[in-house]
Design goal:
The complex is a heterodimer of chains A (about 100) and B (about 425).
Chain A (H helix, E strand, L loop, with lengths): L3 H16 L2 H4 L3 H6 L3 H4 L17 H13 L7 H5 L4 H12 L4
Helix pairs in contact in A: 5-7
Chain B lengths: L2 H23 L10 E5 L3 H13 L5 E6 L4 E2 L4 H6 L8 E2 L2 H5 L3 E4 L2 E5 L4 E4 L4 E3 L2 E4 L3 E3 L9 H6 L9 H12 L5 E6 L9 H16 L4 E6 L8 H11 L4 E4 L4 E5 L4 E4 L5 E2 L2 E4 L3 E3 L16 E2 L4 E2 L5 E3 L14 H19 L9 E9 L5 E11 L4 E4 L5 E2 L5 H19 L1
Parallel strand pairs in B: 1-2, 1-9, 2-5, 9-21, 11-12, 11-17, 12-13
Antiparallel strand pairs in B: 3-4, 6-7, 7-8, 10-18, 14-15, 15-16, 19-20, 22-23, 23-24, 23-25
Helix pairs in contact in B: 2-9, 2-10, 7-8
The chains are: A mainly alpha (about 100), B alpha/beta (about 425).
Chain lengths: ~100, ~425
Amino acid sequence: MKRPLASITLLISALSLLSGTAYAADPNLGRNLAATCAACHGTDGKTAGINANLAGVPKDTLVQTLKAFKSGEKPATVMNQLAKGYDDAQIEAIAGYLAAQRK
Amino acid sequence: MTSNRREFLKLSAAGATLSALGAIAGCAGSVRPPGHVVVVGGGYGGATAAKYIRLWSQGSVHVTLVERNPNFVSCPVSNLVLGGTRSIADITHGYEGLRKHGVRLIQGEVSGIDSDKRSVKLANGDSLSYDRLLLAPGIDFLYDAVPGLTREIVETQIFHSWKAGPQTVALRKQLEDLKDGGLVAIAIPKAPYRCPPGPYERASVIAHYLKTHKPRAKLLILDANPDIVSKKGLFTKAWDDQYKGILEYRKEHNITALDAVTRTLRFEFGDPVKADVLNLIPPQIAGAIAGPFINKNKLWVGVDWLTLESDVAKNVHVIGDATFSAPGMPKSGHMANSQAKVAAAAIINLLAGQPVNPEPVVNNTCYSYVDDRNVVHVASVHTYDARDKTFKAVAGAGGLSSAPTDIEGKFAEAWAKNIWADTLG
C-alpha cells in the first residue's frame, strides 16, 4: 500500500511538471541543494567532524528531522535557522539525494 | 601551436571519449560535456569549484587550477593562531586532494587574461587555453587609501594578517613580544570587507590572550564603521562580561594618517592613537587578477548570479570575495564555497549546451570565538530572486546564537574540518 507521503510527493512532482518549475526541470536539483549542506556535513553528507553524517541516511528520517528543525520541535544551535530557508519540496529533494549516497 | 594548446586538444579529445562512455552508461541526470576550465586562485572558492567541476562532470571536464602558494592557509580559524590556541600548521593544508580528483595543479602567477582569445598567460611565459575561466582571486588591499601606508610597511612592520600565512605568524610574534602594560590597536576599514565579524572575533581572542598572559595590557578597536558590523549584541555582551578594562571599542574612526615609525594613527574625529602593536586592516578591492572585470563602485566584479559569469566578459566567471555581493551576502569562505558549487553546476551545463539551474540556493554559517573556547554563530540562506536577478536572504530563516557556548565551539571545529575536506579533499 502506498503511504500518503509518497502520494503527496507524486502530486507535488506532477504539479511541478505542470507549472514548469525547476523542481521538474533540473535533474540535478537534489544534488545542487544537498551541496549547500556539505560545508558543515561533508561532501555528499559524509562528515569529517562531530556534525551528523547525512550520507545514506533513509530519506524519511532526513525529511522528518529537517522538518522538525524547521518547526522548532527539534532544538538545535544552527539547524532551526537554516532549515527555515528551505521549502518542503527542497527538503524532499535534499533528502532524496543524500539517502542515495554511500555511507 | 604551443605545447599547452596541443595538450589541451588532447585533453578535449579524451573528454569527448569519456562523455561518450557516460552516454552509454546512461547515468540519470548526469551531464558530461567535454571542455577545459581554468580556475585561478585556490582558496575556499577556487579549490571548491575545481573539485566540484571534476566531481559533477564525472571527470569529463578538464580543470587546471593556477595558485601562487604551495599550500592552502585558512583565514577562518587564523584568529586563533593570533590568540595562541592554534598553530599555523593547524590551518595549513596541501592541494594533493584536488589532484586525486584529476585537477591539474599549476603553482604560478597569472600575468594576463585575453578573454576574446580565451587564453590565460602565466608569469613564466606559458599560456593556457580555456573554454571557461573561473576567477577566485579573493581580495587585494588599497594601501593608498591609508596615507602613510605602503606595501613595504605592510610586509615588514604593520601587519594586516587579513590573508592567513606569514602575516598571521608575524602578528602573533608581535603579540608575544608585547610588554605587559602595552597597547594593541586593531583598525577596521569601512564595510564591505572580507569576513564581517572577523575583526571583532580577532579583538576578542587577542583580548583573551592579554587577559591570560599580559593582564595589564590593553586592546583598542578603532572602527571606521558607524557601529559594529556583525554580531553586535553578542560581541558587546562578551566584551562586557569578559574584557572590561582590557578592551575598548571606538566607532567612526576613519584613518587620515599613519606614522609607521611611531605606530601612530590619526583620525577624522577623535584623539590620535599610538600603539605598541598595530594591526591595521586596510580597505579592500577585488583581487588584481579580476581587475579588468571590475564594474561596481570601482571595487568589485558584478556577476550573473545564476552562473557567476562576469557582467562584462563572456566565459569568465568570478566567485567569492571579489564579487559585488548580493544584498545581505557576506564575503566569507563559507559563501565562496557555496557560490563555487552554483558556478560549477552552471559551467558544466553551459559546456553541455543545457539550461542552468534557475533556482540556485546558497547559505552561510559563520562561527566566531569570543575567547579560547566559547563561540557564537550567524547563519543565513539565500535564494535566487528571478525578478530582481539577485540572491536574497530568505525571510524568517537564518539568525544568531543567543549566547556564546562551548558546544558551538565544538561545532566550529567540526565546521572547519568539514569545509576543509569539502574544499580540498
